[in-house]
Amino acid sequence: MPTSVPLKPEMEIERNEMTSRTLTSDNTSSPVSLLGLIEGELQKVEARLIAETRSDVGAVRDISGHTLLSGGKRLRPALAILCARTAAAQRTSFVYPEDRVIAAAAAAEMIHMATLMHDDVVDEAPERRGRPTASAVYGNSITILTGDYLLAKSISLLAHNDENLHVVRVFSDVTVTMAEGEVLQDVIAHNLDIPLETYEEVIERKTARFLAGCCETGAMLGGADAAEAAALRAYGHHLGNAFQIADDLLDFLGNPKKTGKSLGTDLRDGRVTLPLIHALAQADSETRESLRVRLAPPGGAMTDADIAAITATIQRLGGFEAAQKVAEERTERAIKELRRFPASPHRDALERLARFVVARDR
Amino acid sequence: MPTSVPLKPEMEIERNEMTSRTLTSDNTSSPVSLLGLIEGELQKVEARLIAETRSDVGAVRDISGHTLLSGGKRLRPALAILCARTAAAQRTSFVYPEDRVIAAAAAAEMIHMATLMHDDVVDEAPERRGRPTASAVYGNSITILTGDYLLAKSISLLAHNDENLHVVRVFSDVTVTMAEGEVLQDVIAHNLDIPLETYEEVIERKTARFLAGCCETGAMLGGADAAEAAALRAYGHHLGNAFQIADDLLDFLGNPKKTGKSLGTDLRDGRVTLPLIHALAQADSETRESLRVRLAPPGGAMTDADIAAITATIQRLGGFEAAQKVAEERTERAIKELRRFPASPHRDALERLARFVVARDR
Fold first, then answer.
1. What's the complex ipTM?
2. CA-CA distances (angstroms) from residue A182 to A264, A307, B59?
3. Which pLDDT tens digits describe chain B residue by residue (362 residues)?
4. Measured distance CA(B255)–CA(B261) in Å, rounded
5. Count of the separate structural domains present in chain B
6. Residues paired with residue B131 on neighbouring β-strands, in sequence order
7. Whether B152 and A165 lie within 8 Å, measured CB to CB
8. CA distance A6 to chain B (A)
9. Does the distance separating the beta carbons of A188 and B149 come in below 8 Å?
10. Which pairs from B195-204 meet CB under 8 Å and 24+ separation?
11. Coil, strand or helix at B191
12. Domain membership flag for residue A2
């Protein structure tokens, strides 16, 4: 008889009543209609996430639930489902494997949740999306271990729900790559001299390949042929790069009420992202030196004034404009990959999703 | 072009020259002959571990290498190989899938290494087996992320090396269970009132099922039929329980030079294990109270004198004897499962391994 040690029994109630803030809900800046098309499927993903993380160890259930409830946009599940539907729309007399798509979508979100939990421990983040992080509430130890649980559970879910190994390969490989990207990001933190290629390598590994993997998996399950799967994979890849660059811009320019994190959070963690790299490349030696001091103040912690000054300098040197342009170019490349598919509600949603990702007011 | 950021380039040399302290080497207390039988195969596991963790992110490679070099006994790979060979010895005209067995053995060790790395972060352990832990050398952040890398890599290795999903299922399921066991252990830390069943649940999840999974996987790859696979799984399960109880005894009675960790390390982490549970059940109320004070000294940290006094009390109350008896019973149950197999060098090695695990001077 397994021992259940619930930390906070009331979480169970919350979990059951959970209405997640997906991209379909109207409390985000996204148009309600953006993913309304797949709202029913996204709700099945939610139900699956809850069912799969109902561990008989109470604390595991509670911490998983805490992270599930933290208001994720469910971008990865949405990509998997939309790509599956886009591919399937090409096929006649194809039996759409909804359950396998939902399982893959849920597994993708579990991997994402696990990496967020470990990131929050690594970054000592008190909040995410305006809610306390799991590590802040439950402590680092249990959060690390529950992250491991979710990583393993995602693979277990896939291995028990699929008859071929391909999906397991794709998801385990992207997880390997993501961990490498996170390590690389950690190693180069606070280094203002990193070349553009290293930044590109980090976002490629920590974001782009994962989104590409979600799209490829969806496509495969939707019956795509090799060329179609490659196109949707490429869509996800470009979208992932655009998404991460846009996310990096929000660290300087976002509305904390919408993003749920304070301005300059990445900057304080020593993350040198595209706007800053562009600005540093444009700066004269005096400006570079003043940026350097602001970024590693002799007193220790960066102040809000430091962040405001760095932001103003990047603005003046065109760093935000340049980064936004790169993100938009990536979006256009993503959308181009969709052209091989005839217009369909799901294909169009992928296009709108790509444009939404780089919208300045998201 | 991936960016490589080696933290310590000299690690690479060490890795290449690595001679691990497996159960075959003579610098452990085990008989040299114990696993000499499969020394060649264990060397292939070592080579595979090095090859698979040769990440192009330098830090990932170095930290994986650091943990690889920390002198593990390779118990899990040995179990997988010995069970595969024991099962295969039953078959005529069976083509032994050595490469798949080596891959599964390496994957098992990678999962084990990943959990050790995360454990060391959770326990803030400065040393393991007499060497500084990865977290002590490289810091918690990169160690957590490299643990994730190893977890994902183990699944990726299996998914790319095997044509059926069963091995992935077994290993992802045991990893789920292990994480749950670790969380449970963390939740009940410092609680002297935990029932025996909860202790059993923890060691079942964190150790026994993993060893059972290694044996079952080996058996399956060795061509075992369902009954044979179940017997070897049961062997691993009983062995795992015996092994963990023996390990818990070593925290009180081991030779730190052999175990590589100070006496009372688990005790300081608040782990209430079988000898103490037995002692608490036997103690009168005064002794219980004095144990309570020693275990949570008003000053904060437990001293060596506290540990010596607790050890003496457990000794007096027969806690070690009782725990040793349980471990030996488990060993006998493990060995009993081997009876269905005719005598063979590999079967005999499994039997010796079971006896070695509970030997007091290991």
1. 0.90
2. 19, 23, 11
3. 344 433 333 333 344 333 334 454 433 444 445 788 999 999 999 999 999 999 989 999 999 999 887 778 899 999 999 999 999 998 989 999 999 999 999 999 999 999 999 988 888 888 887 788 898 889 899 999 999 999 999 999 999 987 779 999 999 999 999 999 999 999 999 999 999 999 999 999 999 999 999 999 999 999 999 999 999 999 999 999 999 999 999 999 988 888 777 899 899 989 999 999 999 999 999 999 999 999 888 877 889 999 999 999 999 999 999 999 999 999 999 999 999 999 999 999 999 999 998 886 65
4. 9
5. 1
6. B128
7. no
8. 9
9. no
10. B196/B274, B196/B277, B196/B281, B197/A1, B197/A3, B198/A3, B199/B272, B199/B273, B199/B274, B199/B277, B200/B241, B201/A2, B201/A3, B203/B240, B203/B241, B203/B244, B203/B245, B203/B248, B204/B241
11. coil
12. no
> Which of the residues A153, A156, A177 would you substitute to probe the B interface, choosing the one with the greatest number of B C-beta atoms within 10 Å?
A156
A138: nearest CA partner in chain B? B187
Whether residue A19 is contained in a domain is answered as no
Has residue B16 been placed in a domain? Answer: no
Q: Which domain holds residue A131?
A: 33-357
- Retrieve residue A69's tokens: 């409830």
Of A159, A179, A180, the CB nearest to B168: A159
Q: What is the CATH number of the domain that holds B63?
A: 1.10.600.10
Is residue A263 assigned to a domain?
yes
CB contact under 8 A, A145 and B187: no
Token reading at B186 = 């963390």
